[in-house]
Design brief:
Blueprint: H1 15-44, H2 48-70, E1 84-86, H3 91-101, H4 103-122, H5 133-155, H6 167-186, H7 190-193, H8 195-209, H9 238-265, H10 273-292, E2 298-300, H11 302-311, H12 316-330, H13 333-339, H14 344-369, H15 373-391, H16 401-408, H17 411-425
Antiparallel strand pairs: 1-2
Helix pairs in contact: 1-2, 1-3, 1-12, 2-10, 2-12, 2-13, 3-4, 4-9, 4-10, 5-14, 5-15, 5-17, 6-8, 6-14, 8-14, 9-10, 9-11, 9-16, 9-17, 15-17
Length: about 425
């Protein structure tokens, strides 16, 4: 088969050729895929041995989700080269629910919310127009802002850590961030796309020499281990479920954006309603499965969309090879155990860069929408109320418990709701 097959959606590619291109996609998203669960598990206080199992599960779920996007099951999946992974979008809310009500309550909400998003994906043509470009831009920007405190806390050593804000955390976090920055500014091609991974490696090595790496999680780790199903018993709390559903709607908005960007950048066309619906349905239903494995929801990865657009490699078999690598990596527990040894300061240095890029993406989406008076009102009011009110969450004390659970500490949900309402209510500009 000619090399041009890798630039075509369908077509057989020799395995030896598919591996490096598939591995490139894995490396581009690897850090982003495991970081949310590491941060969440660290803050909630999950046992280190179980943390390793959860990382394994994340890798397997990401592989399964990618396979279903590539090769749909009925109407679930887009048949597009979309790489799936654990979403940062849910992280701030997951921390609130996990610390307040427990991981079981979080997983119950993840399962139910995923089913809701999956069903919405099957009927996308009836509601897709509600999510206008300016609504999507506002929500993505809010996600970026909501994640910054999480990155800052990790940078300082992790919220609640005995050495929080210590000098060694500042040193390691700063060197990690600086490495990411230098690779992003001066790196070219492959190196630039892996700037976060390079930063993590450099930060980890520095932390190792400074005595900050704890290898106790590696004690007694086996060679091969099957994924751990139901590490947390799901519990169902209405407030938590409604909160998560609100973020699932946000995630669906992101998936619409990623699917549209992939088709425009790599395939030079607009996505069909079938592709959009399949992409969202996969997002939702596979996220429900993720909840059974103790993982937070998955979503499409923007960095892989960018990689596909930049390289032109869109062959589904090639991307599937990358998904296979993720699944294989997930059945070796040593991989997950080693990753749990990454210090919080290293993760903070990496994530600040990633979270900043989400903000930039939101600003870019706003610029494409234009800075009309109507758009200014939607963006400014949604962000000011969403970010401002939730930073003073005690002001929600007069409302019922369910309202406080959904909105009091969930700025993204508030921003999303206001943006949708304003977009529907404000008159269109001529």
């Amino acid at each position: 088969m000619s090399k041009s097959s890798i630039y075509q959606l369908d077509g057989r590619v020799p395995f030896a050729q598919a591996v490096p291109f598939g591995l490139q996609h894995v490396l581009a998203m690897f850090v982003s895929n495991i970081t949310p669960i590491i941060i969440l598990a660290g803050i909630v206080g999950v046992d280190p041995a179980l943390q390793g199992a959860l990382i394994q599960n994340c890798m397997i779920i990401a592989g399964i989700g990618t396979f279903i996007q590539l090769f749909p099951v009925w109407r679930i999946g887009s048949r597009l080269p979309i790489v799936m992974g654990i979403s940062f979008t849910f992280l701030s809310l997951a921390i609130v629910i996990g610390t307040g009500s427990g991981m079981g309550t979080l997983m119950g909400a993840v399962i139910i919310g995923g089913i809701v998003e999956g069903i919405l994906g099957l009927f996308v043509k009836y509601w897709i127009k509600i999510i206008s470009p300016i609504v999507a831009a506002t929500v993505v920007t809010a996600i970026g802002f909501s994640l910054l405190p999480i990155g800052a806390n990790s940078f300082a050593g992790g919220q609640g850590a005995a050495d929080f804000g210590a000098a060694h955390n500042w040193i390691v976090g700063s060197l990690t961030l600086l490495t990411c920055l230098l690779c992003q500014v001066f790196g070219k091609g492959f190196l630039r796309s892996l700037s976060v991974l390079v930063g993590l490696i450099v930060g980890y090595i520095v932390a190792l020499f400074m005595g900050m790496v704890d290898f106790s999680a590696l004690d007694g780790v086996g060679i091969i281990s099957l994924p751990k199903i139901l590490p947390f018993t799901p519990e169902f709390n209405l407030g938590a479920v409604l909160s998560i559903i609100a973020i699932y709607l946000v995630s669906a908005t992101e998936t619409i954006g990623d699917t549209s960007a992939l088709c425009a950048g790599a395939l030079k066309r607009q996505p069909t309603d079938r592709e959009l619906g399949g992409s969202i349905a996969c997002d939702g239903f596979v996220s429900s499965i993720a909840g059974l494995f103790g993982c937070t929801p998955i979503t499409s990865f923007s960095q892989n969309v960018g990689l596909a657009s930049m390289s032109g490699v869109v062959n589904r078999s090639v991307i599937a090879t990358g998904a296979l690598i993720m699944v294989i990596g997930g059945i070796f527990p040593a991989v997950g155990a080693i990753l749990t040894t990454i210090p919080q300061a290293v993760l903070g240095g990496c994530t600040l860069m990633m979270f900043g890029s989400i903000l930039f993406a939101g600003f870019g989406m706003m610029a494409k929408c234009g800075f009309s008076n109507r758009n200014m009102v939607i963006v400014s009011l949604s962000l000011s109320v969403g970010l401002g009110f939730t930073s003073a969450s005690q002001m929600f004390g007069i409302f019922p418990d369910i309202v406080r659970t959904v909105f009091a500490e969930n700025c993204v949900a508030v921003v999303f709701l206001l943006a949708v309402i304003l977009n529907l209510a404000l008159p269109k500009e001529e």
